[in-house]
């Protein structure tokens, strides 16, 4: 009997959900904005402010790059009005599945966006003469170094130095291959188009990384592990994101984020509008709202990620602003290597190289 | 009267069986079938191909990793047998009844927390700035801390620790049925301890040992956390390759093929061991 009652309960719940979806659809005409984004990218305070200003309610779904693509692929670009993929995950998806619509840049408040970031994103998301994204958030991968213990580490290739045996850590992931490549004089991104040359580059990196293995304490693969290793001073230098470096800098002034001399690697998360967005005007309003300096600064103060909003600096908390002037001054930003779109098949080649590095001894 | 009752039983059966059946079908059988289909399709999504399976045999890195994983799993299973037999013997035969209950609880308690927490516990103990190192340095045994994590010995110890219970419990189950008189008789006839273990206790416990071994072997083969966190830079485990294929390279097809190869090859190993030891699966499962 209990099961029957349970079954009825479950059915009622399902029916309720179905009705819920139905009513949501009905009121979608420009009164609701459905955003799919990363955790922390749409803070509740800003959502409330936006709703008060425009009368548009915001529904947020948290996600990541892979899920954004597969969800929009399943609905052919429907179900969401605005999403926030990384810039290197857009053009190939547009070509293959057509799930985004071109951005009408005249509807944006261009003056409040950092021009170099906007140009880079426009270039990287160019398909058939039209661009598909607006920059929102950026971050870099460089080195986090304990300068009291390992003052000599300035670039990715210094992580292979036998002098620091057992005191180094990095991720066994593609950014390490790319970063090592740049610091050894390669231009990995230019080799993307030629799989044979790229394989030769990977083989060289494989040799270097295997030879440099004695320096490695362990390959870190989650943020907590990295923080623990550096905090306990078991590891003196690691490849990592600036957020990790700044967090540790607050605890131990000897540890800080350093942009490698061959250039930090950087990603940009963007705004993109799905092809079947039901509230395009609301989406543009949200983009302009989020890039307004005071709103962008609110976000950066909380999450410590860099923003594409040009004048947000004026509204940053002093200690957050100090991080940026110390770790990512204009000279460093100018040298950054932005991730371009990854062609099909490249990740498989990289995967095999990384597996061989991990398995060797 | 009887027919009526029969019908009622049938309805009851349907009501109770449907959720189980749906659960199995929707959440286990269907996804597996989809993975099986994926494993026979190329990355482009075109037609039937064996490429994903052939890649395993063509690329040395893949099958070497599997061989390494499987041989470590066998080694861990053997160590677990050696450790678990005396423990179970003590609990069932030597300890008093109340103490044996207490010892069982001691064995079980660590398994009330998740594997992740247990592994992190070991890491806190063993790491260079960890508890054991600090203790040894303070009492002057070591001059400076030594890194005890991130090598194969530690990894095997961690795997033995996390899978011990799954050997002890089946062995205790069987050992409880062993008549003490047999052991006493052997002593009376002048048998040495080793001979008693070899000719009486181990043969009697064989079904328990074998079923425990199957569980431990499969657990170790399929474990992901312990080798990854404690093994460090040299420990490429086969499950990690499946994870990498699916999560990092988006190559579900290759990942699915590896998954089924893992299933097939580990079943093959278990079958071979059962044949070699002359045990039948039916007897062991019972």
Give structural notes.
The complex is a heterodimer of chains A (361) and B (286). Chain A is globular and about 60 Å long. In chain A, strand 1, helix 2 and strand 2 (57-62) form a beta-alpha-beta unit. Chain A is built from 15 helices and twelve strands. In chain A, helix 8 runs parallel beside helix 15. Chain A has 361 residues and is of the alpha/beta class. In chain A, strands 5, 6, 7, 8, 9, 11 and 12 form a seven-stranded mixed β-sheet that branches. Chain B is mainly α. Chain B has a single domain (49-285), classed as Orthogonal Bundle (MetI-like fold). Chain B has helices spanning 2-39, 51-58, 60-94, 97-108, 115-126, 131-138, 152-163, 165-175, 180-188, 193-221, 225-231, 238-248, 252-277, 281-285. In chain B, helix 5 runs parallel beside helix 11 and helix 12 runs antiparallel to helix 13. Chain B starts with a helix and ends with a helix. The mean pLDDT of chain B is 88. Chain A binds chain B through residues 3-4, 7, 66, 166, 173, 213, 216-219, 221, 225, 232-234, 347-348, 351-352, 354-356, 358-359, 361, and chain B through 15-16, 19, 59, 61-62, 64-65, 68, 127-129, 147, 149-150, 228-229, 232-236, 241, 244-245, 248-251.
